[in-house]
Amino acid sequence: MHKVIIQGGGEHARVVLDCFQEQGADVLALFDPKYTGELFGVPQRGTYDPAFAPEASAVVAIGSNGVRRKVAGITRHAFTNAIHPSAIISRYATLGMGNMIMHATVIQAQARIGNHVIINTGAQVDHDCIIGDYVHLAPGVVVCGTVSIGEGTFVGAGATIIPGRKIGAWATVGAGSVVIRDIPDYAVAVGNPAKIIRYNDPV
Fold first, then answer.
1. Angle at CA of residue 75, ends 157 and 107, nearest 5°
2. Fold of the domain built from segment(s) 3-80
3. CA angle, corner 79, sides to 11 and 113, nearest 5?
4. Whole-model pTM above 0.90?
5. What's the pLDDT tens digit per position in 167-202?
6. 84 is an active site residue
7. Which candidate in 103, 116, 127, 136 is catalytic?
């Protein structure tokens, strides 16, 4: 049985833990200094211990892209992917490591998913898309074919990105937005059609 630890103990970690348990993984512990006790029968052990169960693999189950990147950088365990059994992933798609592929998601042929990506509940990534490291696609997002999304970008719940668009790094697309034009790095775009309203601070 695949042994796993989870970095993070909050709301997103609950969903990731459920995914691992549905996969049949043996989740040994969750690490988060804010939480103690147990979650779904798994002990929450506080601050991360790199010497704990070194044979186990890890996922950083933290929703914030910036915080997830920081925590991944200090994690010494090898990374694995959390993939719910209800996810549909083409055999011709490629996945990096540390990813969280949630319930009822779809990843189509020749999509390329980076590392430490969250593809949240019911999100869809169509053919030939490129999803950069630390991206978070919120529930119900639709990414049409040949879209490129840069590192660290957050796409809000129910947003749609039409085919062929390019979204830069560390950008934000608001919930329910429809992206019909390219969006540059750090931009915050909302609405239908999505319009830039400001820029995030550089990471």
1. 35
2. Rossmann fold (3.40.50)
3. 80
4. yes
5. 999 999 999 999 999 999 999 999 999 999 999 998
6. no
7. 127
